[in-house]
Amino acid sequence: MLTACLKNDTLQAVSSPRPAAIAAYPTAELSDSAGIEWDTLNQTTRKLYSQGHYSEAAKVARQALSVAKRTVGPNHPDYATSLNNLALLYSRLGRYDKAEPLYLRALTIFEKALGPDHPYVVTTLENMADLYRAMNKFEEAEKMEMRIRAIKARQ
Q: Residues near 99 by Cβ (< 8 Å), separated by ≥ 6?
């Protein structure tokens, strides 16, 4: 089963040094997942996101977050994926105040559940760096970029 974790693309308000992409996170590496309903909601979120329908995608992403919380709990990587997706959508909508705490929570979950050098951690850090650039918090963005470089150097 594949789940989607949205990653920054060229539609953002600031330019990104990374290529446009929507990352697919396989849940097969986990012994449990949030299930088919959650996966379907994520697929719908990804489709709406790719079409530029961010408000609609955010509504579906909030549903996916609720499903993940109910099925696997608030400390599972699937829940963190839902947090990341919703944060990215809020960022696209200019709701930076809502995006930042969701990214921070997703990052904490991914680091605890999967380790500090996991690719999902890198994706979340990349999204956070772009958020901070959009917020004109360039020092914070650079801190995220430094962490990303350090992780990639260890891999």
A: 87, 88, 90, 91, 131
